[in-house]
Amino acid sequence: MALLQKLFQKALLTNLRAYSVNSLQKPPKILITGGLGQLGVECAKFLRQKYGQQNVILSDIIQPNLEVANDGPYIFADILDFKGLQKIVVDHRIEWLIHFSALLSAIGEQNVPLAVRVNIEGMHNVIELAKQYKLRIFVPSTIGAFGPDSPRNPTPNITVQRPRTIYGVSKVHAELLGEYYYHKFGLDFRCLRFPGVISSDPPGGGTTDYAIAIFHDVLRKGHYQCYLKPDTRLPMMHVRDALNALSEFLEAPNEILNRRCYNVTAMSFTPEELAEKMIKYVPDFKITYMPDARQEIADSWPQVFDDSEARRDWKWNPKVDLDNLVEIMIREVKEKIASNGF
After folding, report:
1. Catalytic residues, which ones?
2. What angle do CA 282, 211, 106 make, to 5 degrees?
3. So what's the pLDDT on residue 341?
4. In this structure, are strands 234-238 and 188-194 parallel, antiparallel, or unpaired?
């Protein structure tokens, strides 16, 4: 029995090394699924600067705008079509797979059957694809993977989860399935639990997206009606920190990773605290509060995220704090409004 265990461990380590890509030798060929969502386009731009324009392929099931189409390779990819995904991996010699395709929390609650297909069946396809072709696969998770039974302040890396949205349930499923494939098959699976990610792009249907919508509404209309209570505290980070975390984690050697899934965050704040910081730039704006069904979701999520394990293992360190975030968002949303002509 001891001999069999040693042989299995040796085979697992050999297999894991085969999955790993040494980015110092050559840039990896990367496929991003769900590329037209909140993170995809910015992620492609960021990684193309590091690895070369032709080495990062953005994909989705809808037609991109001209700017996205001109920025680098873009292809059609349906995550529910396994053979189609196989063809893409073979034809483009893909080595890393970044799987962004998912219905977010609020949208998922409106169409649970579709969320199950996209978030769970789609995950089955990409993880089996990664196993078959020995890819390094990154799947984002979320603060929504925790639930009302989880400790909320702080929420540690390992604790009870039990989410109550289909989005959260699907992300816990992805975390556990990925860890199983790592231990069973040596798959180089990597996962970060992101907080609310804030960028100048329009909100995409997440519960934390009030922190994006407030900038667009205030700068366009002078007021914002918030769907959360003023004292609802949630973890957040700017998209720059999210992309830095993703890139650093993908490049981290397997030997230094004590987990396959890590919490990452940059700050925690409430709608009221965010509004107070914005007054410096827009002194006369108004904010009102009318909590809706998203309040119940937010009340089940972490208030403060403990990312000490990521800071310890692969030296994660965010750069954008709340003051920086407000300054960046005011500037970038103003530019976006001006360029769109409204």
Report:
1. 167
2. 145
3. 62
4. unpaired
Q: Which of 170, 165, 143 is nearest to 154 (CA)?
A: 143
Which band of pLDDT confidence, cut at 50, 70 and 90, is reported for residue 340? confident
Closest to 273 (Cα-Cα) out of 303, 316, 243? 303
Summarize pLDDT for 165-205 with one digit per residue, the tens: 999 999 999 999 999 999 999 999 999 999 999 999 888 77
Q: How far is CA 149 from CA 120, 154, 298, in A?
A: 23, 13, 13
Question: Rounded to two decimals, what is the model's pTM?
Answer: 0.90
Q: Are 92 and 31 in contact (CB under 8 A)?
A: yes
The answer to whether 290 touches 227, Cβ cutoff 8 Å, is yes
Q: Which of 160, 32, 40, 155 is nearest to 85 (CA)?
A: 32
Give CA–CA dist 114/98, Å, rounded.
21
Please give the Cα distance from 50 to 271 (Å, whole number). Answer: 35
Residues 298 and 228 sit within 8 Å (Cβ to Cβ): yes
Residue-wise pLDDT tens digits, 122-150:
999 999 999 999 999 999 999 999 999 99
